[in-house]
Amino acid sequence: MTTETTLGSVAVVFLAAILTNNILLAKFLGMCSFIAISRNIRTALGMGLAVTFVTFCTAVLNYAIYYGILVTGAPLCSADLTFLSFLVFIMTIAGFVQLVEMILERFSPVLYYNLGIFLPLITVNCAILGVNLLMIDPDLKFGLAKTAAYGLGSGLGWLMAICLMAGIRQRLEVADIPKPLRGLGITVIVTGLMAMAFMGFTGMVDL
Amino acid sequence: MIYIQAIVVLGGLGGTLAVLLLIADRFLANYGPCKVAINDRDPIEIEGGRKLLEVFYDNAIFIPSACGGQGTCGFCKITVKDGGGPVLPTELPYLTTEEVEAGTRLACQVKVREDVVVHVKEEYLNVKEFKAVISSARMITHDTRELRLKLTEGEEIDYRPGQYVQVFVPDTGETTFRAYSVASAPSSKTEIELLVRLVPGGLGSTYLHNIRVGDGITFTGAYGEFELDMSEDTELVCVGGGCGMAPMRSILRHIHEVAPTRTCRLFFGARTTDDIMYMNEFQALAGEMKAFGLHYALSEPAQSPGWDGETGFIHESVERHLGTEGRRQAFLCGPPQMVEATMRVLHDRGLTRDQIFYDEF
To answer: Which of B17, B88, B90 faces A91 most closely, judged by CB atoms?
Structure first.
């Protein structure tokens, strides 16, 4: 499946997932929770950690399911069931989110209630499904190590983007913004500027 | 063949996930037995992980709560002295800074994960659950229904004029209560009256508009801070809008029974003639009570042909009729805008905060 899996190539995938191929700023996936939860750094960090955890775990889990069951000639089922990948991935993600919810409710009720409705919404967070679907791209030829690095990197990239955004938005609260642009308007503009800034990383590393 | 394989794969994965979640639920949501100490009572031992409000209801402590434990009414305030964890963001909109510092919490949001010590207002400990049957029901305006609830033989309810009860709304999947002010005088201990305005889509009002004479009903009570000043020289000012008539009727019927010479005024605001309630009844009372001023005002007189009474908002009517002299006590009940506007007028007329009781809905 893989061409070469050295520590260096895994690190490249990891860095590329964070910087050049940032799931949010390069692919614009996971925008809804990004905009809704980025008002406060603490909550943003919590949400980012939850997304990172779910992205990483589901990427690894779905990798195993995809290559163990779904692809043609897989060890557990030889038929080509790749058409199920959407359904199966969503199911795994949903199950995992439930688990994260239980863990958070037990150990950090404040964060649990702060994330509120957005925690169950991770289930349909397109960033996570996006990572899961992108990692099985045949052109990338990811092995397990690279998939794990890609999942973790993408999650951290999303976390970094939302935390940066939350920091900027906390400052925007006191900024003198033209009335029609307040709230969502300025947020989308700032997101665009951040995406352009991230384009500066282009060419440094590549998937 | 491939379809069978697909179904088996999906089913297998789904099943595995379900089993994993069940196992996690067993270990993560298991808090073991916890003790809940309420006021000076002996601690109750309960299974951890439950909400305080449920624990209260199970132990026949009926603190007010209107939203079925959703954290949207802010009625179920109690003081948590120990345990209970941090104040949650869902509670903050309903708590002032002082309350947070004093340990006030919403009972519906506090999950018992450890031993907790709580303090509940003494008056709530006296609140009881009552079973009753609907003895009569009639529409008094196009959207408001008057219900008479006859308590089970031998039961009596004590309440002050202006207090409210919480009616249990069945079949909602949760413990849902809705608050309704009692419209009858406190001398009626075996039968109470409620006024219910139909709110489209409202759980409580839909239930109470469909309930039939002879049907059973459960409610808890009585609640409410309304405390009538019974000294003869205090002028009573009652201001009601819409269903806010209920507590005013209770107060005025009580006055009619025990102190018919008291100076009192009733201001009732409605939109159109269709919304007017109990006008004949109060006119009859006014005939029997010498110092009773009755003021009905309509805010949409254009829609009310034949109306020759006052027009405009009810706070404007209060402004016109209320003087600035003497000891007075005011009771307000109605929509928030009405309460707010009337409060301003009352402050202008020299009433202080502790002379005004109000209920918004």
So the answer is: B17
Query: Minimal CA–CA distance to B132: which of B75, B180, B191, B87?
Result: B191
- A48-78 pLDDT tens trace: 888 898 899 999 999 999 999 999 888 888 8
Contacts of A99 in chain B (CB under 8 A): 20-21, 24
Running DSSP on this structure, what letter comes out for residue B213? T
Residues of A engaging B, defined by a Cβ cutoff of 8 Å:
65, 69-70, 77, 79-81, 83-84, 87-88, 91-92, 94-95, 98-99, 102-103, 105-106, 109-110, 113-114, 116
Tell me if B296 sits within 8 A of B310, measured CB to CB.
yes
Largest CA-CA distance found in chain B, in angstroms, rounded: 92
The CA distance from B263 to B269, in Å, is: 20
Q: How many Å apart are CA A1 and CA A135, to the nearest integer?
A: 12
Q: CA dist A180 to A166, A173, A174, A177, A191, Å?
A: 20, 14, 16, 8, 17
In this prediction, the answer to ipTM > 0.95 reads no
Q: How far apart are CA B73 and CA A202, in angstroms?
A: 52
List of domains in chain B: 33-123 (3.10.20.30), 127-223 (2.40.30.10), 235-360 (3.40.50.80)
Q: Which residue in B4, B7, B8, B9 has the most chain A C-beta atoms within 10 A of its own C-beta, making it the best mutation to test that interface? A: B9
Q: What is the pTM of this model?
A: 0.65
